[in-house]
Structures are given as structure tokens and as C-alpha cells.
Design goal:
Helix content of chain B: 25-40%
CATH class of chain A: Mainly Alpha
Radius of gyration of chain B: 19 Å
Strand order of the largest sheet of chain B: 6-7-8-3-9-10
Oligomer: heterodimer
Structural class of chain B: alpha/beta
Radius of gyration of chain A: 27 Å
Number of domains of chain B: 1
Number of helices of chain B: 10
Distance between the termini of chain B: 33 Å
Structural class of chain A: mainly alpha
Largest interface: A-B, 21 and 32 residues
Number of domains of chain A: 1
CATH superfamily of chain A: MetI-like
Number of strands of chain A: 0
Order of helices and strands of chain A: HHHHHHHHHH
Strand content of chain B: 15-25%
CATH superfamily of chain B: P-loop containing nucleotide triphosphate hydrolases
Helix content of chain A: over 70%
Number of strands of chain B: 10
Shape of chain A: flat
CATH topology of chain B: Rossmann fold
């Protein structure tokens, strides 16, 4: 037997060691919760007035009116075209952007510019970018495509940069050690390791672009969203429902397609 | 062939990895470099092809001063130095053949590299090497489907595809089991001998170093503390390299050597390409 008693209890170390700080944080969190609920300022009478209006709107939505299907199909095709074109150009632009924003490939100044571009383009929501482009290029699908190109480029570019940074350095070292130049190193050590993920992310982005192409239309950037916004402002709620149903169907299809492709990329 | 003079490397963190290291390899021989972790073995090897930039000193390969080369000249010089790694460092999603051919990247155009359009003599050399390292028929297998031993065979073949003047080998067996380790070391040393290529081999396993090398260099505290024939490596030398320890079990018994070699050869012939 040892002279010192062996401990029989053990507790994991606390996240915040000091009890004053620990309890202080708990009290602050509770106080904030109470304050934020109190400051919500919900006008219950107004909310109750909204209910019959909602009921009226939904009543006027059914049955959905597919009578103007030509307009519907035209908007739909425009949306899908916007999504496809934007995905393709976004994919292409994402490659140089992703390479520039990968710390293990780019020298520091290039890296900072690349990361800054990624950060700026990701700061603004698609709708805000769309408003910009509508102001510049006027109403229509061009503004919508440009919006989605910018969004796709920064999304795929960021994923690409992160994937490249996570690559094990040994393979690049080995290819460099054979005397290969930088472009050859990209071709043999980076491209084969990154390609499946890049395609997977791009397909996911195509699926997302189909959804977003319906949204950017609402601010006038073309596609089915623009038709939907117009129908709402004209109180053609039955036509609106027809559009919504079609959008749901399209998004489902896109989701299926994206899932099917990505399952085959492993 | 290779002469290193007063080579020093101080990392940005202030760590002195090499401190005035000088050595000459003037004939085709396998030189094992031993020493504890952090003694500077990896840095020494990586300074030679400048994957690590030396702080001071001179490295001459066949009268070419490697340390002063421009980036373009350095790429040309790297083509003459084959490197083999502990973690094999194969490009996992490429086939065995593509990994082998990547050893010729310095000799083809970017377009040829992209199209995998290598000259016939490179393809022939690749098939011959594949056969020689015991991987006949594996050309279309993806590198990530291979076992550790098989991967290192591809790693060796890739380095030899460069037809190097010098092999730089960094812990080739540290990720392998003892038997595969012996097979890989034997293959490596045989190939170096056949082709008359000198090899610098970083290795942790003192036993393997003694069994397979023609010369052992001991690094300790960024300096060379031993340089001699494997038979000269005694308890005093090991203490100088690694520090105080009872070395009686580590030191190879000379009279056992011949029987051990014979046994190794037998198992090698039996297993052949299977490993």
C-alpha cells in the first residue's frame, strides 16, 4: 500500500474555471432572454386582423389556375436557363478564384486579394446583388444570370480553396521534387485529388441556383420569380398558386438530380 | 558525386536544424543517416533538393552548386534527384502508371503531361520498373487501393523513373511492418546498386541501417557525430548519437550476419512479388 491515498473521484475541468465568471455568464444570459422577449412588442390586434385576410387569400388561391400555362412555361424555362448558365460560368470563374484563395498555393498578396474577393461577394445576399444588377442592366434575365454567376463563383471558389488547403502537403512535395513546374504540379497533385469534390459542389450549386433563380426574379431579374411577383401584385392568387406548385416541382427535380449525380461521384 | 560543405539551416522559429554539416559521397553507396527525432535528418535530405532552403553552406551534385540555382535551374537539377518518402506521397486518385510517369514530368510539355502522352521509352521504362519492383499488372490500379508495402514499391519506382544521379530517401520503412520494411530496404539497396546510384537514407531503425547500408552517418544536435562503416558502430558511437542507454541488444552480432542474410534471401525468393 502506498502512503498517499489514491483519489476515487474525478471531475472534468470546467469550461470557465472561475465560479464568479461562470455564474455571472449564466445570469447575463437569462437577463438577456427576458429583455429580448419583453422588447418584441407584438401587436396582437394587428395579428388577429391578419388572420381573416390570410384565409381570404388562401381561399382565392384554390383551385390553382394553370390557364396561362404559356407564361408559366416561358418563365420556368428562363429560370432553368439562368440557373444552368450561371452554374457553368460560376464553375469556370471559381477555379482561378479558388486557386488564388488557397494559402498553400498562392503567395501572400495574391491570397489576400483572393480571400477579400470571396469575402465581399459572400457578404451580400443574392437579392441585394440582384437589385444592383437590375439597376445597372435593367429588368430581365441578364441581371439574374450575373447575380447567380457572382454567387456561384464565390460559393464554389470558397469550397475549392478550403479543399485545396486541406490536401496533405506530401503529395505536392513529391511532385515538386521530381522537378515539375507549378502548372504541372496543379495537374498531377491538385486536380485529381480535388476534382470529385469540385464536381459535387458544382452540382449542389446548380440545384441551389434553380431555387435562387426563382427568388432573384422577384426584384425584377427575370425568370419565373418575376412572373410570380407580377401575379401577386395583380391579386391573381390562383395563378400564383399554380406558379408556386410548379416551382416546388422544379426544385424537387433539381434536388433529385443533384442527389443522383453526387451519389455517383464517390 | 555529392559534396556538402558547412551546411546550416535555422528555421524561422529559431530552431537550428543543421549546424555546419559537411559530408562527401564520392562513390555509389547506400548511406544511412541515423539520429533521434529532431536531429536534422529530414532537413538535411530536403536541403539537397531545396524543398527546404538552406541558411548557409554549399551543396554540390556532380560539380553543380545546387544552393545558388534559380528556380528554373533548380527544377532542372531536381529532375536528377529522386525522392522517396515515409508516407509514400503517391497521388492517391491517380493510377499506378500515372504515379510512375509523374517521375518524368520534368521532361514533357504541359500539354503532354495533361494528355498523359509520354514518349514510348518512358512507357517502356515504367513497365520494366513495375515488373522489377514486383507490381507487374498493377498499372491501372489506383494508388489508394494498394497496401503500404505496395505503395512504397510504387514510390521507389517513381523515383527511379527519373533516372536520378542521387536518391534521397526519407524514412522509407517507418510506416511499414518489420518484414515489409526489410523487403523494401532490400529492394531499394539492390536497385541503387544495380544502377550505380548513390542513396542517402534517413532511417530510425539502427538494425536495418546496419544490415543494408555501406556507410552510416550519425546526426545529433544538428551536427555529424559519427561517420563510418556499419561495423564501426559500437556502444560509444550510439551513445554519442542518441544519448546514454544500454546498447548491448541493439548492436548487431557480426557472426550472425551471414546466416541472417541467407535467411532473408530465402524469404524474399519465396514471397517475391506477393509482399
Amino acid at each position: 500500500m502506498s502512503a498517499r491515498a489514491t483519489p476515487t473521484t474525478w471531475k472534468p475541468p470546467r469550461l470557465i474555471a472561475h465560479p464568479y465568471y461562470r455564474h455571472g455568464f449564466t445570469i447575463l444570459a437569462i437577463a438577456y432572454l427576458i429583455w429580448s422577449v419583453g422588447s418584441l412588442d407584438i401587436d396582437w390586434t394587428r395579428a388577429s386582423h391578419g388572420l381573416p385576410r390570410a384565409a381570404d387569400m388562401f381561399a382565392r388561391m384554390v383551385p390553382p389556375d394553370f390557364g396561362r400555362w404559356q407564361l408559366l412555361v416561358k418563365g420556368m424555362i428562363e429560370s432553368v436557363q439562368m440557373a444552368l448558365a450561371a452554374s457553368l460560368f460560376g464553375m469556370m470563374l471559381a477555379i482561378p478564384l479558388g486557386l488564388c484563395a488557397a494559402r498553400n498555393l498562392a503567395p501572400l498578396p495574391v491570397y489576400l486579394v483572393g480571400r477579400a474577393l470571396l469575402a465581399i461577394t459572400r457578404t451580400f445576399h443574392e437579392v441585394i446583388i440582384a437589385i444592383f444588377f437590375v439597376k445597372i442592366f435593367g429588368f430581365g434575365p441578364l441581371a439574374g444570370i450575373l447575380t447567380l454567376v457572382v454567387a456561384s463563383m464565390s460559393f464554389i471558389g470558397k469550397m475549392l480553396a478550403e479543399d485545396i488547403e486541406n490536401l496533405p502537403p506530401g503529395q505536392m512535395e513529391a511532385v515538386r521534387a521530381t522537378g515539375a513546374s507549378f502548372p504541372k504540379m496543379l495537374l498531377y497533385a491538385i486536380q485529381p485529388q480535388i476534382l470529385p469534390r469540385y464536381l459535387g459542389v458544382s452540382i449542389y450549386r446548380l440545384d441551389a441556383n434553380i431555387r435562387h433563380s426563382t427568388v432573384v426574379g422577384i426584384v425584377g431579374a427575370g425568370g419565373i420569380g418575376q412572373v410570380l411577383a407580377a401575379s401577386f401584385s395583380r391579386y391573381d392568387y390562383d395563378f400564383s398558386l399554380a406558379i408556386l406548385i410548379t416551382i416546388v416541382a422544379l426544385v424537387f427535380l433539381g434536388e433529385f438530380f443533384s442527389h443522383w449525380v453526387r451519389a455517383r461521384l464517390r | 558525386m555529392l559534396s556538402i560543405t558547412d551546411l546550416s539551416k535555422v528555421y524561422k522559429t529559431g530552431t537550428r536544424a543543421l549546424d555546419g554539416v559537411s559530408l562527401t559521397v564520392d562513390k555509389p553507396q547506400v548511406v544511412a543517416i541515423i539520429g533521434s527525432s529532431g536531429a536534422g535528418k529530414s532537413t538535411l535530405i530536403r536541403c539537397i533538393n531545396r524543398l527546404v532552403e538552406p541558411t548557409a553552406g554549399q551543396i554540390c551534385l556532380n560539380d553543380l552548386d545546387v544552393t545558388t540555382l534559380s528556380r528554373r535551374e533548380l527544377r532542372k537539377a531536381r529532375r536528377r534527384m529522386g525522392m522517396i518518402f515515409q508516407e509514400y506521397n503517391l497521388v492517391e486518385r491517380l493510377t499506378v502508371m500515372e504515379n510512375l510517369l509523374s517521375g518524368r514530368l520534368g521532361y514533357v510539355s504541359l500539354w503532354q503531361a495533361y494528355r498523359r502522352n509520354y514518349p514510348p521509352h518512358d512507357i517502356a521504362a515504367a513497365f520494366e520498373l513495375l515488373d522489377r519492383v514486383g507490381l507487374n499488372g498493377y498499372q491501372d490500379t489506383r494508388a489508394d487501393e494498394l497496401s503500404g508495402g505496395q505503395r512504397q514499391r510504387v514510390g521507389i519506382a517513381r523515383a527511379l523513373m527519373q533516372q536520378p544521379d542521387l536518391l534521397l530517401v526519407d524514412e522509407p520503412t517507418a510506416s511499414l511492418d518489420p518484414k515489409t520494411s526489410r523487403q523494401i530496404m532490400r529492394l531499394l539497396c539492390e536497385l541503387a546498386q544495380e544502377r550505380g546510384t548513390p542513396a542517402l537514407v534517413n532511417i530510425h531503425d539502427v538494425g536495418l541501417a546496419q544490415d543494408f547500408s555501406d556507410r552510416i552517418i550519425g546526426l545529433s544536435g544538428a551536427k555529424i557525430v559519427f561517420d563510418g562503416h556499419p561495423s564501426e558502430l559500437d556502444a560509444n558511437a550510439l551513445t554519442a548519437i542518441y544519448g546514454e542507454e544500454d546498447w548491448s541488444a541493439t548492436i548487431r552480432k557480426v557472426e550472425d550476419e551471414d546466416t541472417k542474410r541467407e535467411n532473408d534471401m530465402k524469404t524474399f525468393e519465396q514471397e517475391g512479388a506477393a509482399g
